[in-house]
Amino acid sequence: DQQVKQNSPSLSVQEGRISILNCDYTNSMFDYFLWYKKYPAEGPTFLISISSIKDKNEDGRFTVFLNKSAKHLSLHIVPSQPGDSAVYFCAASAMRIQGAQKLVFGQGTRLTINP
Amino acid sequence: ETGVTQTPRHLVMGMTNKKSLKCEQHLGHNAMYWYKQSAKKPLELMFVYSLEERVENNSVPSRFSPECPNSSHLFLHLHTLQPEDSALYLCASSQVTGGYNEQFFGPGTRLTVL
Is residue B40 very low, low, confident or very high in pLDDT (cuts 50, 70, 90)? Predict the structure, then answer.
């Protein structure tokens, strides 16, 4: 039972265009969502997050949109750059345990930015 | 050293060996986590420590034994593993607060069990 799903294993985008990565979830108790980026041979790096009280959060070229009724979030990267080529993971949190969080991750989407 | 470090980066072991993975965070955090990433599967949370106390064991077999001697160090002791335990093991840390905070990850240990 996968609670967080990234249905596109890969995405290819032209440099300078918009990259849109999608994530769906099933657990309505999730109230905090994060995007991580992972390069080969490195650990995931935090990119951007959003709490369930918002529907949009923006940080430079990165914007995350949350649609609670559809249980869907997306990450927009504009403009896309070659250095954005990586695997992107969506993660969600429903509870804190003594201040620590339980994150549930999607399978990841490999983004390739073509020059 | 900065961030979250993990050693070794690669480990090959037989099923009868005993080995340990080490994680150290230099961020002043007080929650630490072990995750497992198998091929073509999402990251799976294994253990959570908050303020040096284990607060979550996510149905992990007893052949994996975590240890958190202080808020900066986390170990994963391995014994009598199976080939299906071959995976990337990631350590993460975060700050314990009343709100939400992102977790910071180490580079991982690539484990191969023969």
Answer: confident
